[in-house]
Amino acid sequence: MGGFGVIEVVEPGPYATVQDLGRPGYAHLGVPRSGAADSRSAALANRLVGNPESAAVIELTFGGAVLRFARGVWVAITGAFCPVEVEGRTEGMSGPVWVPANAELRIGMPSCGLRTYVGVRGGITVEPVLGSRSTDSLSGLGPRPLQRGTVLPVGSTGAMLSVDLAPVAPFARQPVVGVIRGPRDDWFTPDALRDLCAEPYEVTSESNRVGLRLSGRPLIRSRQGELPSEGMVSGAIQVPPNGQPIVFLADHPPTGGYPVIGVVRSSDLPAVAQCRPGTRIRFRLTGAQEWPPTKPMSA
Amino acid sequence: MTGAMRRVGEDALLVETGSLAESHRLDAVLRGRRLAAVEEIVPGPESVLVVASGGSFGEIWAQIEEAVSERGTQGQAGAPGAAEVVVEVEYDGVDLEVVAELTGLRVDEVIARHCGSPFVVGWLGFAPGFAYLVGLDPALEVPRLEVPRTSVPAGSVAIAGGYSAIYPAASPGGWRLLGRTRMRVWDEHAEPPSLLQPGTRVRMVPA
């Protein structure tokens, strides 16, 4: 895939980055996975324009972007629902949209949700770092966040456009999120898991691509002392000493030292990544499929 | 080996190893098996996290159980046959005098004890390529700065608590700076990008 300067960022909105599926395989070297926070919406944007799901897209935070295209190209807008205009004409979300050469694509503020994805036929072809074009907001790996005047190259693909419109369920105003207990639920009082699921938690404004900082009923530890640092996953609900949980998202640190009381079910993680500050989310305990439960080793 | 296998959501499990040496052994065994669905193997001081995707979890679980039960020699931390990296250090760090004061040693003794410490990369974290080097001479244990510096230059050689480290890139940092090295420990265009891997043995020598 070649790539020429095709997209000029006229206005990036509050925070916009290039994202793909991230850089797995380097966590043991201190490298976060990164990648699209709502990977489901990013994958849909790619499919709608005939790209493989691994192509890089633009991730907008709170919308508000204006992009100018040097050549005509198919795009698809997914994720948080925003008004979309091409040359003053209103266009829909979740379907391919033709942007003529030298036209502007304007994306307004989302009415619901937080992160909007712009898939471009051929994909954004900035230089990959460790196999990924994602901006990692924690470590600084990958391209810089988009600024006014940033120019992005676009590749090419021969695949057909085969879908006019994808049916997408609207985001829930108060999402219910499945949680699998552990691995460190035994560091908390027996009531802590029930407390986690008893009342909704509010997403605070200190949330970002690293994690959602929540505010609500504090989760009380039964064990004091420090946990030796251990590997972390996306969706881990880490509880610092103040008892207010943090849900890790794509740019989470690969290791951490606070106990993880539970992990968000992977199919619910995209919805969590779409929670804007002020959203109230409710946790619900759920079992994991297929895995045997935690068990002691015989050794 | 005290451990349990703990489920971490749907796609991962945490094996409690009880020791860094066992973490390194298990990390090396699992890495050597190249299990197709395994995306990450992350050793920690007393655990190894294994992240899988799209595979048969039951099968991966069985493979890990087998690797755990294989008995290795319970010795020092460090993967069997791991490489040794010799790091040339210019001992001119801004905290050298303070460390001497805190430890009650002379500056040349601080340097000698740092060079005499048999370091092993325990694990990486904090930043890409930031290796926690275990094996620091206990006489050199000092607390980190109360207020971290906003920027520590790349290549800074530092200590804090029971660890030493080499800053892979310029970053904020609260460790005590003993000196610096020209050795590049992190290169995002290299494969692997980090010179220091869990289990790598490291020796410091004055430049």
UniProtKB/TrEMBL annotation, chain A:
Q: Which SUPFAM superfamilies match?
A: Cyclophilin-like (SSF50891)
The record's InterPro entries line, in alphabetical order, gives: CT_A_B, Cyclophilin-like_dom_sf, PxpC
Q: Which UniProt keywords apply?
A: ATP-binding, Hydrolase, Nucleotide-binding
Q: Which GO terms describe its molecular function?
A: ATP binding; hydrolase activity
All copies of the Carboxyltransferase domain together span 28-299
Protein name as it appears in the record: Allophanate hydrolase
Provenance organism = Acrocarpospora macrocephala
From TrEMBL, chain B:
Q: One Pfam annotation, family name? A: CT_C_D
Keywords annotated in UniProt: ATP-binding, Hydrolase, Nucleotide-binding
The residues forming the signal peptide are none
Which molecular function terms from Gene Ontology are attached? ATP binding; hydrolase activity
Q: Which InterPro entries match?
A: CT_C_D, Cyclophilin-like_dom_sf, PxpB
The Carboxyltransferase domain covers: 3-196
Q: What is this protein called?
A: Carboxyltransferase domain-containing protein
| Species name | Acrocarpospora macrocephala
